[in-house]
Amino acid sequence: MDIPKRLNRLGTGVFERNDLRKQAYHFASINGCLPPLCDLSLGSTDILPPSIILEAIAGGIKAPESSSYCLQAATRPFREAVAAWSERRFGVVVDPDKEVLLLVGSQEGTAHLPLAVLDPGQVGLILDPSYPSHRGGLVLADAHIEKLLLKFDQNWKPDFGSLSISQLEQLRLMVFGFPHNPTATVGEQSWLDEAMQLGLRHNIVIAHDNPYVDLALEGDSPVLLRCSGWREWGIEFFSFSKAWCMGGFRIAFAIGSESVISALRTVKGVVDFNQSLALQRGAITALTDFEDWPRKILGVYRERRDTTISALNNLGWEVPIPSMAMYVWMPMPSWSLEQGHSDEELASEILNQTGVAFTPGSGFGSGGSGWLRMALVLPVNELEEGITRMRSWWDANS
After folding, report:
1. By three-state DSSP, how is residue 154 classified?
2. Is the pLDDT of residue 30 over 90?
């Protein structure tokens, strides 16, 4: 079969490539004398959701309607819970029927959005680096992709002022997110305000991917719903995966402009049905009864961050201190760059030599080249043990 040009442009995802490498190492560790895999490559936490949320899901599974297809009308209790949460959390009143949409994970929403708001050849802008689904959705929609390079010496701030009037007039969609994955930067509200004002002036849909809204370790997370004009051209994506530790359940939601929500709902109407009512029941419980849960786990992530930074520094690896939970964004050591390694080669070597898996930064775009992402998704002692494993390899190469 001839491979469609669209798939060739899409390429292989960094998580898929990493998965193949981890699988090969895992099999080798079973059959040999290698230490077990220490997987710090995915933002999939070891922290469990509150037991009552799991009990709500388990109880809901027994209801006959949970095994049925779930169409839009059946999601109304979920959407009402989202609307109530939005008013409590942000002081923003939203219409559960016109401005809220259930998603099968925020990744699904950001990937489908370009199909909903762009014609082939129209222009969408993403940050570089950025989460892979931001680019992937534009590729699948046959959009022209513009990238806004983020720089370490500018604290990863998007320089919207670098966009010319001509570029802005051609843009029809801008996709970004703060707190930012992969750079672990919380960001500032003014950055979103500036983007939203550009959307209003130039008729650009502004899409803000915000699954880490409750996981800022320093400062306050920016929120698009607090920007003037989001009801005209904005949409914001939220998730249960990070803050409520429900990544495997694949449930999220979007709040946004009535016209943008309607367009995305139209795409979803021919692509997928909604998640089971049992999962929605657990999500409603999370929003209603465990709104403070994300704040309770911040202490866990703070300890993991501080301990990990100290251990890396003791190793000789100097890394910036992240302002958001879950990730450490690590520049490649100078000696590795001098040896001509790429970040993907370095990640592969660390895995093969020590059994510790990181994600190469270039998998998030060329702007991530020369960086590695570590996920703080294991207990402190296991994070320390993983870094200790790297000592002999580091000393032999540095």
Report:
1. helix
2. no
